[in-house]
Specification:
By secondary structure, the protein is α/β, with parallel strands linked by helices. It is built from ten helices and six strands.
Length: 217
């Protein structure tokens, strides 16, 4: 039986390259592709893949938030993060979201294939290129209560914050999240009050610092 894989990356060339490589593996099959986190959530719910290769930095909904939403619906899906970011912020947030693996985009495909098979079999796989300091930092934080800024905002507020930071208007955000413009404005006020930040520039810097979005998108 083939491992059913969903590819989630906002760069088409990356998805095409991964699909081509995976197609050569006798025990793997790509069932769908998503160009952003929101599409990944929808496709995961519809298709129930075995493994999702998830880019961390994507527009509309980043890989961290997408992973949270997917795993809240299905605990059987395994997520492998594939990112250019190796710093502890992105790694720890992805792992806390429930990802079973974290790979760097400059890894060899043989390593990614190994990671896919490992997480499919219920194991965790971290790229050897990620420093031990990052893993130690994650484990240290895991044993502490998450009382920092990252727990202040609700999941919906984090979604709204990402879209605000990416320059989306109140109307556009409402359409994407299927909520009214008035509700978007309410979330925006709550975000500003909770973070004590009252300009879009401040919110954008915060969103980038917390890994909700990046300058690369």
């Amino acid at each position: 039986m083939s491992i059913r894989i969903l590819l989630a990356d906002d760069h088409k060339i990356t998805r095409e390259g991964l699909r081509s490589l995976i197609s050569k593996q006798s025990d793997m099959k790509v069932v769908a592709e998503a160009e952003n986190g929101r599409d990944a959530v929808s496709l995961a719910k519809e298709l129930r893949p075995d493994v999702i290769i998830m880019d961390v930095s994507m527009p509309d909904l980043n890989g961290i938030e997408a992973t949270k939403q997917i795993l809240s619906e299905s605990k059987n899906v395994k997520v492998v993060a594939l990112s250019m970011h190796s710093d502890n912020l992105f790694v720890s947030e992805m792992l806390k979201s429930g990802a079973s693996g974290y790979m760097l985009k400059d890894c060899a495909f043989e390593e990614l294939g190994r990671a896919i098979r490992e997480v499919f079999n219920g194991n965790t796989y971290l790229s050897p290129m990620i420093s031990g300091v990052v893993v130690e930092d994650y484990l240290r934080k895991l044993n502490k209560s998450d009382s920092g800024e990252s727990s202040i905002l609700s999941n919906r507020e984090r979604e709204v914050l990402q879209l605000l930071a990416e320059g989306q208007s109140t109307k556009q955000i409402g359409l994407k999240l299927f909520i009214s413009a008035k509700t978007v404005e309410t979330h925006r006020r709550q975000i500003m009050n909770k973070l004590d930040m009252y300009t879009v520039a401040e919110l954008t810097k915060y969103a980038i610092r917390k890994g909700l979005t990046s300058l690369d998108i």
